[in-house]
TrEMBL record:
<keyword id="KW-0028">Amino-acid biosynthesis</keyword>
<comment type="pathway">
    <text>Amino-acid biosynthesis; L-arginine biosynthesis; N(2)-acetyl-L-ornithine from L-glutamate: step 4/4.</text>
</comment>
<keyword id="KW-0663">Pyridoxal phosphate</keyword>
<dbReference type="InterPro" id="IPR049704">
    <property type="entry name" value="Aminotrans_3_PPA_site"/>
</dbReference>
<dbReference type="InterPro" id="IPR004636">
    <property type="entry name" value="AcOrn/SuccOrn_fam"/>
</dbReference>
<comment type="similarity">
    <text>Belongs to the class-III pyridoxal-phosphate-dependent aminotransferase family. ArgD subfamily.</text>
</comment>
<dbReference type="GO" id="GO:0030170">
    <property type="term" value="F:pyridoxal phosphate binding"/>
</dbReference>
<comment type="subunit">
    <text>Homodimer.</text>
</comment>
<feature type="binding site">
    <location>
        <position position="141"/>
    </location>
    <ligand>
        <name>N(2)-acetyl-L-ornithine</name>
    </ligand>
</feature>
<feature type="binding site">
    <location>
        <begin position="223"/>
        <end position="226"/>
    </location>
    <ligand>
        <name>pyridoxal 5'-phosphate</name>
    </ligand>
</feature>
<dbReference type="GO" id="GO:0003992">
    <property type="term" value="F:N2-acetyl-L-ornithine:2-oxoglutarate 5-aminotransferase activity"/>
</dbReference>
<dbReference type="InterPro" id="IPR015422">
    <property type="entry name" value="PyrdxlP-dep_Trfase_small"/>
</dbReference>
<keyword id="KW-0055">Arginine biosynthesis</keyword>
<protein>
    <recommendedName>
        <fullName>Acetylornithine aminotransferase</fullName>
        <ecNumber>2.6.1.11</ecNumber>
    </recommendedName>
</protein>
<keyword id="KW-0963">Cytoplasm</keyword>
<dbReference type="InterPro" id="IPR050103">
    <property type="entry name" value="Class-III_PLP-dep_AT"/>
</dbReference>
<feature type="binding site">
    <location>
        <position position="138"/>
    </location>
    <ligand>
        <name>pyridoxal 5'-phosphate</name>
    </ligand>
</feature>
Amino acid sequence: MKNTVSRATFDQVMVPNYGPAAFIPVRGSGSRVWDQSGREYVDFAGGIAVNALGHCHPELVATLTEQAGKLWHVSNVFTNEPALELASLLTGLTFAERVFFCNSGAEANEAAFKLARKYAADHFSSDKHQILSCKNSFHGRTLFTVSVGGQPKYTEGFAPVPAGIDHFEFNNIDSLKAAISDKTCAVVIEPVQGEGGVLPADPAFLAAARELCDQHGALLIFDEVQTGAGRSGSLFAYMEYGVAPDILSSAKSLGGGFPIGAMLTTEKVAQSFGIGTHGSTYGGNPLACAVAKKVIEIVSSPEVLAGVRAKHARFVAGIEAINAKYPLFKEVRGMGLLLGCVLNDAYAGRAKDVLKAAEAQGLMLLVAGLSVVRLAPSLVIDDADIEEGLKRFEAALATLTA
């Protein structure tokens, strides 16, 4: 059958805020994807750390299909069983005692930042409204979340931006000490900076952030949109560090490809979001919550989490072996199945060139800035797919060094 749309259609009908690849994926299974022409790709991108169980995982398809035959949407005038079941599961597995559902990571962070200011106003004063986040961080694309994010390029042209937001150096305890005060209502940290270059936090840095927040009556927020739902090798990355936040944001892998976000917090902090203070029309949607519950049930299993750690080691060893032949990278870093290959000085700024070379070899990758190639594959990717993908990765690097 002749295709009715093509990549050229994008340029004709879509707002030009994205620059998608030249091919259009139309079908996926596990960690393989096929485009309109039937060409196959190995997927190491995972929908930007979203497809936690790959494409069309049979248990997710069955769960979604079953829920689709029952109830799609009732709004938050009512509650629903999948939302309550998912919230009960999340609170049973984490530090949290209360959950708010929304549709994306940006919305989860928006809720977290609003809650932090409301909590400070309730328990201290409206003067305690400063939010601190890390330079080079990323927390979403709403005007509030992009302002909290520490990358000025994302706020260019959108001024005036929300006030009361300041930034400090990631992994720099002294920088945080200098920035925090009794006017600070929240400190926001990604346990692994994702868009900022796949850079894990130092354990001492997160421990110090917890201590400093306690000293100054500030809430500690962990943005686990990219690291959560099993991607780190633990259900959430904070568990890797032994430092619990007051608020945690989750999305991406949480829904395994179905849009959902969640803000997790404690009983005490949650009380500042009384009736009418915040909301989301689609938040807690029965379809999304049913799928997310199945995702969490699967990825929280010891077998899957152990598999993430084993696959991390397989990826790192494979990339390092390739790099010994074609030395483009000076470091492979990250946690679990969120990996960053940092280009050396000779190839600095050419991460997108690596993506294009990989695409030509039938491999889907990501970037994290101009000089980091990012991998965020399925948490249950088959070893055979890892090996085939690495083979294609090697072929791509060979073309760049020829």
